[in-house]
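Example 3.2
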Amino acid sequence: MTTPRDLLSIRDLARLYGAYVDTFRGADGMLPPMMELKRVHTEHVVANARAIADGEGFDAETARACVAAALLHDTGRYEQLRRYGTFRDSDSVDHAAFSHDIVVEKGWLDGDRQREAILTAVRVHNRRDVPDGLDPLTEAAVHTVRDADKLDIFRVLEHQVATTDWRHDCAAFWNLPTRAAPNLDVVAAIRASRPVDYQNIKSLADFVLIQVGWMRSGLRYATSRRLCAERGHLAFRRNFLHQLTDDPVVDELCDFQLSACAAV
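Structure, written as tokens:
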């Protein structure tokens, strides 16, 4: 049986994680572009987790679990891409479960008294529904990572739109049709504040509307909703959707105030 030890510092945990990521670098010392995207994504998710923990007034140990889980949440993305050539889970593996398994295999959290809370947050960060009955530390880590991840997914979409020829090369958006009306099933789910079934994503408009749905009912913490509003993520999606479809449902679904969104 492993004896519980003092909490590994985030700096030391980041060192272990960084050394693992370095094993995917080429002879030129560079990561493949899509892996570099995930490395940068993780940096932003960690920063978002810190901001949420601070804004929500978490104590130091709770904040540490949240930030550690944010750091490790996408550990499996690198091996997923190398092994399967895609980040699309439906065509490869559940990247959250894969990340969990790699962290366990590496033993980075062995003996850490927050081990189970952090691993649970990694394992369920991409699930449609959070398991019931979580203890307070695990619940905080889970919801913080989920919110922090969504906040950076908002940034990533905006970066891709700004820096790629998305009308002709939509690889970052699952190669979905770029000019099509939203799927009615997606619209119905968002109206009802239900998670969207990814099988119903048929167009880039659907892909973007998922994120609108997250803003309406998928952010747990008031700090997350405040950050989302301050960064203009909703306004960007409303404007971008008008480039993708003439369907008036866009304005209906985007007509809400982030500060008034219900917590989940």
